[in-house]
Amino acid sequence: MPAQTPLPITLTGRQVRLEPLAMRHLGDLFEAGGGDEEVWRWQGGPAPQTHAELGSRLAMLLKEAEQGVYVPFAVIHRATGRAIGWTAYMDINVAEESLEIGWTWYGRAYWRTAVNTESKLLLLTHAFEDLGMGRVQLKTDHLNHRSQAAIARIGARREGVLRRHRRRPDGSWRDTVYFSILTDEWPAAKESLAARLGGLGHEG
User: Fold this and answer.
1) Which Pfam families does the record associate with it (predicted)?
2) Is a pLDDT exceeding 70 seen at residue 202?
3) Residue 191: how many CB atoms within 10 A of its CB?
4) Which of 131, 157, 159, 198 has the maximum number of C-beta atoms within 10 A of its C-beta?
């Protein structure tokens, strides 16, 4: 099956629902993570301290989504119906059958829960099984050990490091650690993710 361009879609799991990100999610998102420096530490800038500051970032993301740069999702906690973070498909290359899952954050209350595991399961299943992608990559700052551990737990393989890859907001230089899952690795990764969700429930 030829790879297809990802489009806005709703993906539903047991604990989270991923739906097209919109400005209507702003209030929930600010309540989940506004002003929390640790949540925003690796997001390329200081934590938004007001609804307006977070709204500006959200508007920028939505504008780039209109240009096809991102396909962003609001992460909805199904038990409450509230948006608790966002995530996106990005670096989309249909000809090369590849995309990246990135610009992901969740409110601190949902760290180390099933939220990240199920979100990634939904996104990866859609990418490989519906869109026909052959490679899905994820990347993070070499100092962000929590993120690296979370990526490894979903079954992605560490590929390597791009040194002095990007300047951080404070002027220092970031090395970027790349991970990926390939289409032939996906069945085993999917089985592992499903087992983690079924067996651990409260860990993501």
Assistant:
1) Acetyltransf_3
2) no
3) 11
4) 131
Q: Which domain holds residue 62?
A: 11-200
Residue from 93, 194, 118, 96 nearest 104 by CA: 118
Predicted local distance difference test score (pLDDT) of residue 203: 41
- Decide if 109 is inside a domain: yes
Q: 89-116 as b/e, with b when 16 or more CB fall inside 10 Å?
A: bbebeeeebbbbbebbbbbeebeebbbb
Specify if 3 maps to a domain.
no
Q: What is the CATH number of the domain that holds 16?
A: 3.40.630.30
- Cβ-Cβ contacts under 8 Å for 102 (sequence gap 6 or more): 87, 88, 90, 91, 138, 139
Q: Report the pLDDT value the prediction gives residue 44, as an integer from 0 to 100.
A: 78
CA 176 – CA 196 distance, rounded (Å): 27
Taking residue 69's Cβ as centre, other Cβ atoms within 10 Å add up to 15
pLDDT tens for each residue of 5-27: 999 999 999 999 999 999 999 99
pTM of the predicted structure, to 2 decimals: 0.94
From CA 76, how far away is CA 183, in angstroms rounded? 27
Confirm whether 115 is domain-assigned. yes
The span from the CA of 85 to the CA of 43, in Å, is 12
DSSP designation for 128: I
Answer yes or no: is 1 within a domain: no
Q: Judge whether residue 106 has pLDDT over 60.
A: yes
Q: Assign 159 to helix, strand or coil.
A: strand
